[in-house]
Amino acid sequence: MSQTRADNTSAERRLAYGFALAALFLIASVPATGQPAKKPSAGLEGSWSGGGTVSFASGSVERARCRAHYRRAGSTSYTLDATCATASGRASQTASVRQVGENKYAGSFYNSEYGISGVISVVLHGRTQTVRLRSDSGSAVISLSR
Q: Is 38 in a helix, a strand, or coil?
């Protein structure tokens, strides 16, 4: 019974790491102007960092610190690579997002190390971004800035 609980806690932490990373990816993909991108903006591409909270399906919560890097994939879409760390570990993941509103992006994330996938949304607020991630394993809310 305790091994099953430990396995569940480990899986939830992995999912939370995945969420935190996905959030970073989304945040990095939002244009700084909050308007649909008509041509690539060199100011948007690059690195972002910040932190937030990861909530596991078990109910446990951990603070996360993240770094993300994004690249333009199309006129309104981005691919992202991110790494996040919590007290219990570190994880890397990828994501793809597309613009769905004036300052909003949505897409999916995947953490190949732990096999975690889910949805990600990003809202741009000037030079900061709020990233939300959700999967069956948990959720995360991350704030990133340049």
A: coil
- For residue 132, give its domain range: 2-145
CATH of the domain at 20: 2.40.128.120
Q: By CB neighbour count within 10 A (0-12 exposed, 13-18 middle, 19+ buried), where does 142 fall?
A: buried
Rounded Cα gap, residues 86 and 62, in angstroms:
6
Site of tokens 């996040």: 84
Nearest to 54 by CA among 69, 37, 66, 40: 66
Sign of CA dihedral 39, 45, 66, 16: positive
Tokens linked to 86: 């919590």
Q: How many domains does the chain have?
A: 1
Say how far apart CA 86 and CA 9 lie, in whole Å.
14
For residue range 85-129, what is the model confidence (pLDDT) as tens digits? 999 889 888 999 998 988 888 999 999 998 999 999 988 887 888
Q: Which amino acid is at 23?
A: A
Closest of 48, 45, 41, 43 to residue 20, by C-alpha: 48
DSSP-based three-state secondary structure for 91: strand
* pLDDT value at residue 8: 54
